[in-house]
Amino acid sequence: MTTADIAAARSANPVARLLTAVLIAAGLVLSVDWVSALTALVLELGLFFAVGARLEPVLKRGAVIAVAAALTAITIVLYGQPSGAVHWHLLLVTVSDGSIALALATFLRVLAIALPSVILFADVDPTELADGLGQVLKLPARFVLGALAGLRLVGLLGQDWQYLGYARRARGVADHARVRRVAGQCFALLVFAVRRGSKLATAMEARGFGAYPARSWARPSPFAAREFSLIAAGLVIAAAAITVSVATGSWNFIGAR
């Protein structure tokens, strides 16, 4: 892949990234086995670096997902349905060959499903995603723009929480009863958020953001060959994972469980 191809893939439409992650996840949820998950994971790593993902962010985000997957796997090892040889048993805890195999498959599957969503969306601008959802997927403008506006306001919650704390300390009501203080501050933050949301909705309606059916968009959201190539890569990964799993006899269709 040339430098131009890498740059094109990195600037691909967010909708294409979304569909790629959905295709990979759809192929992996059909079976609970470690072969398909490991195959998809290896191919995904190749895809990440092919589209120009840097090693450090991949490792950092992958480490967080690995911790979550490991916690899930530990739970399955201890409390999964026992089968085969039993290695340890205590009250409700049973560690067997079946629970270990299922835990390994789950660990790899969580990584294979979560990594594309995290890595491919690492540098996606919410506005570009909203443009794609409205223009490419033709989702209702009210839903898309409302979600975008809400997402833009999430960053204000931390600032509001800080200011509420300052105000309560200035009034002398934040020096004792910490549990009550936190509960009251959470309620006040909820009231602030509802009021701000109502004002924002009124302002957006007044400016024609909810116009239907003639909704215009300030920025075009192109969907061309590079987007179809990225989606095709996701389809190939899902198909290859299923094919390898079936060929090795490891395919375990989830509906048959």
Could you provide a short overview of the structure?
The chain has 257 residues and is mainly alpha-helical. It folds into two domains: 3-127 and 222-256, no CATH class; 141-206, no CATH class. 70% of the residues lie in helices and 4% in strands.
* Arrangement of strands in the largest sheet: 1-2
What average pLDDT do the residues reach?
80
What's the number of structural domains? 2
Low-confidence stretches: 1-9
**How many β strands by DSSP?**
2
Q: Would you give an account of this structure?
A:
The chain has helices at residues 3-10, 14-28, 34-50, 55-79, 97-120, 126-135, 141-170, 178-206, 225-247; strands spanning 86-90, 93-96. Strands 1-2 form a two-stranded antiparallel sheet. It folds into 2 domains: 3-127 and 222-256, no CATH class; 141-206, no CATH class. Residues 1-9 have low confidence and may be disordered. With 257 residues, it is mainly α. 70% of the residues lie in helices and 4% in strands. The protein is flat and about 65 Å long. One of its GO terms (cellular component) is plasma membrane. Its main location: membrane. This is ABC transporter. It comes from Mycobacterium aquaticum.
